[in-house]
Amino acid sequence: MKKLLWITIAGALLASPHVAAQDAKAVLAAASKAMGADTLRSVEYSATRGKTYAVGQSPGPGKPWPRFTIIKYNAAINFEAPAMREEIVRVDDENPPRGGGAGPYVAATQQGGIRPIPWGPQTAVAVRDMRNEVAMLQIYLTPHGFLKAAAANNPTVRPGTERGTQAVSFTAFGKYTVTGVINAQNLVTRVETRVPNGLLGDFPVEGIYSDYRAVDGVQFPMTTQIRQGGFPTLDLTVAEVRPNSAAASQLTGQARPAAPAAPAEPARVEAREIAPGFWGLTAGVPISFLIEFSDHVVIIEAPGNDERSEAVLAEVKRVVPTKPIRYVVNTHHHSDHTGGLRGMVAAGIPVITHEVNKPYYERILKNPFTLSPDRLARAPKAAVIEGMGDKRVLTDGTRTVELHHVRGNLHSDGLLMVYLPKEKLLIQADAFAPRPPGARPLPSSPFTVNLLENVQRLKLDVEQMVHVHGGTDPFSALVETANRRGTN
User: Fold this and answer.
1) Rounded Cα–Cα distance for residues 423 and 417 (Å)
2) What gap in Å lies between CA 208 and CA 107, rounded to an integer?
């Protein structure tokens, strides 16, 4: 009797994956029929109301991403190509502005850079390169895209966490687990996955869908929220849907290559001397800086990624081959200024940052990195993070470098600036973005006004400013811009 029982249990266990797959396909078939996915080859949809948010640019570690108001949104998806096009026109109307994300200066429109108020509309158009796996996941995260991709990729099913729901999962490109939740009405209400992020590791992304309406035989969600890292990045109220439109059907994508693409060129960093013993380490922006002391060197800023950090370290060794790197100074927590921190930690270099960032870095540097393992993931090492308050002085008795907290700056709670007293140089990140010659002046940003107020409060004798996002300016440029309050 016991032998018969074990045979029955074993048979059930062996059969369960096949049964689960069959059940998953039945769930998907019912949802595809209910939502009209079987006949949906392409779709266009648009909105005039919504919010978009700047990922990685929060005003403080662990806070939500900065908000922008959408005044126009258009998207087109060709599921058969596959291809996706997205256009967003946004207004930076958060008052007062907090965090970053306004985007770089654009000469053609004379817009961009640090965020003054009010700010004109900014247009962003994204056409996905479908050779990129993460770009393909953008289609899989849509309700109908999920149903099509799941049906073609050996899906499994389990009961959902909410009553009456079922969670269907499949593996995309051999490593991304994509899960969609289907409710009792056979509608997809949520799709989630994780994507690689150079600083945050296996980064959660999810789409949440509601308020379905029938449009030409297709059930389409009129309310969409995309979340990344637990915070919203897109809130959209759809106004118009055009299933199988001619424009969307004509959208073409990039065919996936039959063989792996050739490896990208390695990052190249070049040292440019700004003053004796002080170099800019350039490889695009933001840039790093190198300061030489009598028996060691200090790096300011670690942007980019793991590869960029390796290139920075190699250039430092070339320029100052006999002196060890004692610290890397991090000006603030925004993703474009921290992407290379993991590479510095992997090299055993302690990090100096404002104390508000310390617990955040200690936590995220332990995040799982299974999707795209870097050096720190392959050889884990405890991070040494030294938090500072209002001021810290680095000196060897001859050269002195002062690190100051930019108090009250709305760009980042823990923003630091670096002052070289002997050279009368100030290194600043993101609080001031001067306009190119001939560009139309804009109202001064609160970030810029605050930077000047901090320099004056500390009585720093500054003659020259060096920008982490590139370039130098006389201190008078900051004074002139900060005093241009409320003018056009």
Assistant:
1) 15
2) 37
Residue with the two structure tokens 């687990």 = 177
Q: How many residues does the chain have?
A: 488
Which pLDDT score is estimated for 18?
Answer: 47
Specify whether the CB–CB gap between 419 and 404 falls below 8 A.
yes
pLDDT tens, residue by residue, 158-173: 999 999 999 999 999 9
Distance CA 139, CA 136 (A): 5
The H-assigned helical ranges of 207-305 are 246-249
Q: Token digits for 407?
A: 């108090």
- How far is residue 309 CA from its own chain's centroid? 18
Instruction: Tell me what pLDDT residue 318 has.
Output: 97
* Residue (of 325, 354, 471, 335) closest to 416 by Cα position: 354
- pLDDT for position 285: 79
Lowest mean pLDDT across 261-265, 404-408, 416-420: 261-265
Q: Are strands 240-243 and 188-197 parallel, antiparallel or unpaired?
A: unpaired
All structural domains of the chain: 16-98+105-249 (2.50.20), 270-482 (3.60.15.10)
CA–CA dist 203, 26 (Å, integer) = 30
Cα–Cα dist 220/145, whole Å: 12
- Give the range among 70-74, 102-106, 110-114, 181-185 with minimum mean pLDDT: 110-114
106: confidence class by pLDDT, cuts 50, 70, 90: very low
Q: Which of 116, 112, 115 is nearest to 124 (CA)?
A: 112
Is the distance from CB of 484 to CB of 441 less than 8 angstroms?
Answer: yes
CA-angle at 188, arms to 187 and 191, nearest 5°: 175
Query: Is this model's pTM higher than 0.90 or not?
Result: no
Closest CA to 275 of 286, 287, 289: 289
Q: Which residues contact residue 268 at a Cβ distance below 8 angstroms, ignoring those fewer than 6 apart?
A: 283, 311
Closest by CA position to 430, among listed 54, 131, 39: 54
Cα angle: 444, vertex 62, 417; to 5 degrees? 45
Which pairs from 212-218 meet CB under 8 Å and 24+ separation?
212/35, 212/187, 213/241, 215/241, 215/243, 216/243, 216/244, 217/36, 217/39, 217/243, 218/35, 218/36, 218/37, 218/39, 218/40, 218/43, 218/144, 218/243
3-state secondary structure of 385: strand
Nearest to 342 by CA among 378, 315, 290: 378
Work out whether strand 67-78 and strand 49-53 pair parallel, antiparallel, or are unpaired: antiparallel
